[in-house]
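F.,

This is the one I mentioned.
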């Protein structure tokens, strides 16, 4: 279910709320309509329109310190030349970032990044497009030290392949979504994001080990989803037949829907946790 993806990036391990994602499906064989709800844990920080969302995207010396410290912890080299980029790619230390329907590369001289950064771009772009309808635009990835733009900081981590620049969208909804997600991931400790001015873009230093473990946690949670079905009662149904059809028990349905006794009526919509 694609809608879930938009929230995956916003999950933190600290505070969670449950949000129901819904989708209507039509059962062709039976003609009944099922409303499937999937409950997933998402962070309070996932709310993209939070007024404080953009505040931590201001760059600072401390932010650069952190990016460099993480680069050292990963034992990353600051790559000096284009040839070295090719060499790193041949060893699998850098991975080619291939654009797809969710993102494009704009004037990117070296379309390579650390493998985890490539994963980050792909996941983020998929969610970004689902959330706001736009393709994400990547404007920079690995940049060798000898190929840095004049106004780049000497402490930029682009030469390590752990950073990506994202174009600043003209669409406010897209910016709000992106800033919300980046801020949330920043507070989860998996990246440092900064909104830069000249030219306007988001600089994101992804922390590979931390991000990888975060993605692993998200995948684990995804398998723990509880599926809820909104079942519309038909003539001839009983609690027992419904429970049997959907793989649950009469007691669970009664408890979920506050039913005393066993009376149900055609057209009534019951919320049923289903294991099928
Ligand atoms: Zn950057």
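My design for it:
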């Amino acid at each position: 279910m694609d809608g879930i993806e938009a929230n995956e990036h916003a999950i933190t391990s600290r505070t969670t709320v449950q949000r129901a994602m819904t989708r209507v499906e039509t059962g062709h064989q039976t003609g009944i309509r099922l409303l499937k709800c999937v409950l997933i844990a998402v962070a309070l920080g996932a709310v993209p329109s939070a007024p404080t969302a953009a505040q931590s995207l201001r760059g600072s010396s401390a932010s650069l310190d952190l990016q460099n410290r993480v680069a050292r912890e990963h034992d990353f080299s600051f790559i000096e030349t284009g040839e070295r980029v090719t060499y790193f790619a041949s060893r699998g230390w850098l991975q080619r970032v291939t654009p797809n329907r969710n993102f494009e590369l704009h004037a990117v001289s070296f379309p390579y990044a650390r493998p985890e950064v490539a994963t980050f771009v792909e996941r983020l772009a998929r969610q970004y497009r689902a959330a706001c309808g736009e393709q994400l635009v990547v404007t920079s990835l690995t940049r060798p030290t000898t190929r840095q733009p004049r106004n780049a900081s000497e402490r930029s981590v682009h030469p390590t392949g752990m950073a990506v620049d994202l174009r600043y969208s003209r669409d406010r909804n897209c910016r709000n979504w992106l800033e919300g997600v980046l801020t949330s991931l920043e507070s989860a400790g998996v990246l440092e994001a900064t909104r830069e001015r000249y030219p306007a873009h988001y600089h994101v230093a992804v922390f590979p080990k931390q991000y990888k473990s975060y993605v692993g946690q998200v995948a684990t949670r995804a398998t723990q989803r509880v599926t809820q079905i909104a079942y519309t009662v038909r003539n001839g149904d009983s609690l027992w037949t419904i429970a049997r059809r959907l793989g649950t028990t009469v007691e669970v349905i009664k408890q979920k829907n506050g039913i005393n006794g066993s009376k149900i009526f055609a057209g009534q919509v019951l919320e049923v946790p289903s294991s099928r």
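The CA atoms of residues 13 and 188 lie 8 Å apart.

Talk soon.
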